[in-house]
Design goal:
This is Monooxygenase. One of its GO terms (molecular function) is monooxygenase activity. Keywords: Monooxygenase, Oxidoreductase. This protein is an alpha/beta fold. The strands form three sheets. Strands 3, 4, 7, 8, 9, 10, 11 and 12 form an eight-stranded mixed beta sheet that branches. Helix 1 links the parallel strand 1 and strand 2. Helix 1 runs parallel beside helix 4. The termini are far apart.
Length: 435
């Protein structure tokens, strides 16, 4: 019987493995760490899962944090222009923020409980070739041990040649969370972005931040020093970031308590967004597919990285099932066809992420200003911006943005439900209308 080997137990590898198991396909997941090691390790990210990803989690029965009270239902966008303004909107389909030190180990355990084989071992290129002899198809869902190098960069789809942002992410203390819980996005022209969210951890819900600073700016200078070298000085710089660039967050801070929650509760660095070919030859007629960040690495500015990885994983799972049902070999033709399917699934995520790294066009600014004055437009925009396939056409031209505003001023059923105007519980799931 056919079997699939997956190297990497991040979200892409886990979602692929769980989906294949649900399709009745044997899977072995090769991980560098035991689930318990992930639990006590360093913060992995400050990811938010949006509606399509949450639907996929329900599809494979891993919606372990699906209680309505845990969801994120509101987002505020603060534009720090010469004439500052804010957009406050409700999500028609709530998002969810879970610490990946909780999320990934729980999914790995579910994978093993359902009959998946989990092996803890490092895998480099030489080991990958050996594993390929065990399995019908190998998939790489990690960039560790040089495996990313198997998959060539596609220049025409990868406009960045260096990191477009200096990044800092952390769980925080000394910050009173907003009531009701809500995400905050601060857009600072010429400096970057400061995000605030609240993440479900093993200690309960705690506040978090993600800072995206344009290299060479004052914001970048404030977050570039190594926190481990002087935690107190770094936390003082972080407080200054909030004071100057995120005033809606700063007003809820206790300066005497504020800082990074713990020594493993932060990340610093940067990376270059890249689209790679999703397959490589291992010789002797064997091929390997890439999935998730190994295939497409996006800057986190749009909050779409893990969501794109999940979409990519499910697309690959469907392609594998289709090939097995058709008794089609996992040859180069399969790889090329599946690469095209996977890129179609994640291209909107990449285009939206790259767009947000650039200064917004005037018609998008006009749309934000309108949303700051019109609740219906705000709710529609806040909801749709979480789904790249929905928001990209809106931002394509001044005419498209104007048409969107005209349509949004007639509220959709899902927006009315989210606001409670229909008298229904806000947790009620309504299929959104196209738009």
């Amino acid at each position: 019987m056919a079997s699939i080997g997956i190297v990497g137990a991040g979200t892409a590898g886990l979602h692929l493995g769980l989906k294949l198991l649900a399709q009745g396909i044997p899977v072995t997941l090769y991980s560098e760490q035991e689930p318990d090691a992930v639990r006590v390790g360093r913060l992995l990210n400050t990811v938010t899962h949006h509606a399509p990803t949450r639907a996929r989690e329900r599809e494979v029965w891993v919606d372990f944090w699906g209680m309505p009270e845990l969801a994120m239902k509101r987002l505020s966008i603060h534009v720090h222009a010469p004439q500052p303004f804010s957009v406050h909107g409700r999500l028609s389909e709530p998002s969810l923020c879970v610490d990946y030190r909780v999320y990934q180990p729980r999914l790995a355990e579910a994978f093993a409980e359902r009959g998946g084989r989990l092996e803890v071992m490092p895998v480099d290129a030489a080991m990958l070739e050996k594993l390929a002899r065990r399995h019908t198809l190998m998939v790489v869902a990690t960039g560790r041990n040089g495996l990313t190098g198997l998959f060539p960069r596609i220049p025409e789809l990868s406009p960045h040649t260096k990191p477009p942002r200096v990044l800092f992410a952390a769980l925080l203390k000394g910050l009173r969370m907003p009531q009701p819980t809500s995400m905050h996005t601060n857009l600072i022209p010429g400096q970057g972005e400061v995000f605030e969210s609240q993440i479900i951890t093993r200690h309960g819900r705690v506040p978090s931040t993600l800072i995206e600073a344009i290299p060479g700016t004052e914001l970048a200078a404030l977050i570039s020093r190594k926190r481990d070298e002087d935690p107190a000085a770094f936390d003082a710089s972080l407080l200054e970031v909030m004071r100057r660039f995120a005033p809606a967050t700063y007003e809820r801070i206790d300066p005497t308590e504020f800082g990074v929650r713990g020594p493993l509760d932060f990340l610093q660095g940067g990376f270059t967004p890249t689209v790679r070919r999703a397959w490589a030859s291992l010789g002797e007629g064997r091929y390997v597919m890439a999935v998730g960040d190994t295939h497409v690495t996006n800057d986190p500015v749009a909050g779409q990285g893990a969501n794109g990885a999940s979409a990519s994983a499910f697309t690959l799972a469907h392609a594998i099932q289709d090939a097995l049902l058709a008794e089609r070999p996992f040859d180069e033709a399969f790889c090329r066809d599946t690469d095209a399917r996977m890129w179609a699934a994640v291209a909107p995520t990449t285009h939206w992420s790259n767009a947000l790294l650039e200064p917004p066009p005037p018609h998008l600014i006009d749309l934000l200003v309108t949303a700051s004055r019109d609740t219906f437009v705000a709710d529609a925009f806040i909801s749709d911006m979480m789904i790249p396939e929905r928001i990209l056409p809106v931002c394509a031209s001044p005419e498209a943005a104007a048409a969107y505003v005209a349509q949004a001023r007639t509220p959709r059923a899902d927006m009315l439900a989210a606001s409670g105007a229909l008298g229904w519980d806000t947790g009620t799931r309504i299929r959104p209308l196209a738009g």
